[in-house]
């Protein structure tokens, strides 16, 4: 039983009346509370996740997958004792795990199939009298698991016992008369293509090429090839004969008279008479789960929710696929839920394929309509779905039902989508992916709460030069990037004067770990531009839903666009659009992290007054002897990434408890950065002498322009210059102390003498 718990995927199930004469066991995902399809492995969960929901349903179930074999022995328990059939089968599986069925009247046995074992569906049936066998990879099924043990045992390979069971109880009988009405759905070329890609493709290809080494005689090989052709040709003897003549097995004997007919005709007759089924374009068994959902959850086609017309068709499609397909008007596209995230269905390929799948289901629904006139009306309706142009119109009509805005995605700023599920940063819960979360991003890491990495911890200590306070601050600001919370409204500059100081390795590691939650941005995104382009703002549009934005090594001399930075680091709604798409609004969730050897220039000092920028110094330099060239590779391994994620989560939790708590070294570096960008203050320090002096502002401005030219700075206008000086000095219009006409004077300083 432990094998099932550890290696297989699970569901819950309950009895439903679907109009088949007896209740049917329907599998459900307990998280989504929706009926699931056995064809979709992602709908099934681990045993640990499913188990707590058992009490709310009729039982647990397991998907028959991989090399698992499940054997049902029906009605073999009578008055507490086994029937002869039941006892015989149990005796052949003395060491296997066996449990009672949900009714208590039967047994279920589990074993494994050897990789080399061939389950030939042309020789063996799935169902016999009171015996059923479900084989992983061959039968699309789930089976119930009661854990009501009849016989303790292991789930292991039982090749001999399985062969005995199939041969004794499930071997197909050879028919002596034709029972299949001949009808081929395939062209000759399609028959070859289908047979060459089937489970027994190797056998077909071998026979088709004339290889009879696996048969006891040439005649046996002839019959084996004809049997395969008979299935795909639907029993059409003319097509079988035509194809066989093109195979390498064909020989003169084919046209020899044997009794009243040719050898070839007799061989074909024998193959056709042995048929129990033939190829059909639509296999009803493949649609059972989806048909059940269509009939039970949507009461189609007999209910009144969906009319048999164009409007009903569009609404049915939108409702049926609402959990995995939604239209986004701003992006002019359908979005599909796959692999735990919502993503753009480029070219609407998945949406169109889904319409085709629904068309096939609707075609099969006609069997539920007993009234002949209604059935004919419905068949006319279902036949329209086979037209490409009609399916295109259905997609257009469906767009008005359940549309979703870009701003509806990624709304919960505390959800962090990981490879193996979703972690909630606020309530610290971890649960399976679900479409209703409306997440478009996924981190490239699995959440493993016990994972640790001593090497990463030592790396942080090295690049922060052993400064625990600075290390803690770095951990908090990087953990801040896990959430969509932007309350601190600031950007972070990881600054190192020297190269090889670890900041690049750190940023690349976080970018890789956060997957689509992170992205790089061009330095032009935050640079002051000479012109104001009105083109598509794709640089900003691609940041919707992103949480960690890295700008790496901006060019020397870059001037920061302060207005843009304030907008991007604030909580203001941003507007952007992709090329050839509508514009859309979104709330920024991203934080900006710049790693650089050159600090950008700042012309608007108000950005410092509101603590919008913090400088984190990277003072360490790794020389050739200290450099670890394997470090980046180490940090991309799955266990280490999980450990780094835990380190980031710890940083986020610390940020919630302590706020930023900026350390002294960061404050000093930031204040120095502000000072170095305060052009007026630098000019005053270089060119003015403070005291009880006065100086004409015209003289000061003339010297200021010279100073700007000497220092590669842009000179402000006289008006702006005087306004900047007025914040530190008194500027008045009066007569100078030395006499003369009234003029504008700066009181409290004078120009430094060139001779000093």
UniProtKB/TrEMBL annotation:
Q: Which residues form the SF3 helicase domain?
A: 469-631
Q: Which PROSITE patterns match?
A: SF3_HELICASE_1
Q: Which keywords, in A-to-Z order, does the entry hold?
A: ATP-binding, Helicase, Hydrolase, Nucleotide-binding
Among SUPFAM superfamilies, the record links this protein to: P-loop containing nucleoside triphosphate hydrolases
Q: Does this UniProt record's set of keywords contain Nucleotide-binding? A: yes
Source domain of life is Bacteria
Gene Ontology MF terms in the entry:
ATP binding; helicase activity; hydrolase activity
Q: What is this protein called?
A: Nucleoside triphosphatase
The source organism is Clostridium perfringens
